[in-house]
């Protein structure tokens, strides 16, 4: 499950509340210490939070139980029975706490859920009794037979636990969707969408549950009602999260979601925030990393108006975030149909994107430059692209991108910088088939920079993909200007086969320890 990265001390302080509750539950066997309605004496932590917080507490408790079960299996393999027993007792307490906490804030539970809760509690008690008997046994043969029983019981506990969590989350998703569909109240609908978004952030499995229960259908219904216009950005953001899974895509196709997105993007009466979130959904459903593409047939029917709206959003973006979302959608679209690149050329998108890159307020991160250079790289397969690059001073921009470096050292940012370097080299290699572009690149000293990237692993952050792209660009430029390279560079980086030059430039030191 997805857990937000927080300071370790803060995480310990949060978990401590659960652990102390766990110890109380261990001693009291889930019985309340009093019948007084005194908040200070209340053991159930969830009572002080709203529904969204309750779900987060439930997910955190579930994550702890899941982790503990994994650790029990590891200790069981090593025959560390004392640890196995103490951890089993702890899991038993956590399970009881989780069930009690959930039952305090849920409005209704099904009979199936009550049966699963009873099965899980009974099996946890049986599990604890098993491990306690193992501590009192010294006969190795008996221990072996008991170990297999304990292992089977552990598997059953994990199975019941997984089924219960699945049922609980499905139940909560159904409740939230029921609120969205039946409530005419703006406040209740907004609260339900917010809780649904929080659930979707917990990972692909939660998104599948929401999609299967009709989440995409319910959210697009909101996006088709003018009375909920102020909720469109939040609704679209939730849709972008859910549509990362195949089930979400199927639902989107069923309700003509792409047509709805096209209508939102082309409607000038909507706010920039709404357009930006619609672009985010487009970026999600056109991601080249997705293996399912059934929805793309209907996308092609609306592609021209979507691309036109996205280019306009890039041109008029008031912030870096809006530009990033719009350009990411355009970048993804250029991957799956060359017609998109032709439409972009007709719309003077190259000029708009190159102009945006000179505005540090708009294109302010490696992530934005990554999207821009992706579009340039994909458009560079068209012959007409070269003249656009020259007119927009694009070769200078590509040269600057070869120097892309992370300022923070953040792994995600470093990876984005590598992509910028790689794609700028790829774009140069493709465009340099045009003598005018090649000449401009040579005048801007692209060849020395490409050589440095090839020979210095630190300049390219030890990236092999950057190395291959730079070698390809260097070889293309060397054809146009053979005198621009020293003989050693030509002999090592241009003359041999590409794979031989690659191996020469790659650090080949091996460790046989």
Automatic annotation (TrEMBL):
Q: What Gene3D superfamilies does the entry give?
A: Inscuteable LGN-binding domain, Leucine-rich Repeat Variant
Extract one GO molecular function annotation from the record: cytoskeletal anchor activity
Protein name, entry field: INSC protein
Stored InterPro entries? ARM-like (IPR011989), ARM-type_fold (IPR016024), Armadillo (IPR000225), Insc_C (IPR045789), INSC_LBD (IPR031938), INSC_LBD_sf (IPR038205), Inscuteable (IPR039921)
Q: Which Pfam families match?
A: Insc_C (PF19427), INSC_LBD (PF16748)
Q: Which CDD domains match?
A: INSC_LBD
Instruction: Identify the residues that the record assigns to the Protein inscuteable homologue LGN-binding domain, covering every copy.
Output: 4-48
Any one Gene Ontology cellular component term annotated for this protein: apical cortex
The scientific name of the source species is Dicrurus megarhynchus
